[in-house]
Amino acid sequence: MQLGLLDENSSATKSAPDAAWQITMQITPDGLLAQVTQEEQKDASCLVSIGLPASAIWRLAGCAGASEAHAALFATARINGSADLAEALSWISKRLRWDLEDDLAQFVGDIAARRLHQVGLALSSAQRQAFDNLCHNLFEYLADEKELLLRNDQLQSYYHGVDELRDRLALLEARVENISRQ
Question: What's the distance, CA 65 to chain centroid?
Answer without folding.
Answer: 8
